[in-house]
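Exercise 3.2. Students should predict the tertiary structure of the chain below and write it as structure tokens, then compare their answer with the key that follows.

Predict this chain's 3D structure.
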Amino acid sequence: MFDIHSHIIYGVDDGSRSIEESIQLIEMDIKQGVTDIIATPHYYVDHPSDPDRILRRLEALQKQLREQGLDKGIRLYPGNEVLWFESMAEKLSSGEILPLGNTRFTLVEFYPEESWETILRAVRKLRNAGWRPIIAHAERFFALRTAPKGEQSRFSELISQGAYIQLSTDPFGGGFFDSTSRFCKTAVKNDEVHFLGTDMHRPDRRPPVWTAAVNYIEKKADRPDALLQKNAERMMRNEDFIW
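Answer key:
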């Protein structure tokens, strides 16, 4: 399985606090069947991350995994999770923001109450600049949860504009009365999701959780292997597979 959203780079954001915690998170992912992880530390326009620091710490993590004999079961890639701002495309082009795995794909998030118009404009602006936006933990944004009566779903509209959709794995464990869980499951059944990510932060706060998501996807998704692995492999080959 391929986890495209994680905060395993230690000491750079609100994720892992030490290399030991990072290794523990990676081990937790491996034990649940993950073979590939993209490290996506936060990038904020008023608190930018340092790409060189991220790459150095990713290298240190890979070295530690080799020393512990864990490197054969996992592949790590660099990236950022970016809170949308108007000059994001320019920062990507200059190398200040890391795209996912050195591809043209970029993971973008918004404030929970961001307007539909802003999200749509962000997708179009990134696309026009040659980037392929992936909406991070798309289940969180209120503007994407409902569409006006008679119109296509918000996910469907974003996909038609060139956006990819990533959902978090944790909400799939919610019951029938959990609206976020229902929303995620409906999106999977409607074939409106491209990627999954744990958004793991720390072993004791937002650890990686896969079981419920995998069980549901294997039963209900038209192409479970695409959602769990194949789409991410295509992304890493830099294939723009929705356009």
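Discussion points: The longest strand covers residues 105-109. The beta strands are 2-3, 36-39, 42-43, 75-78, 81-83, 105-109, 132-135, 164-168, 195-197.
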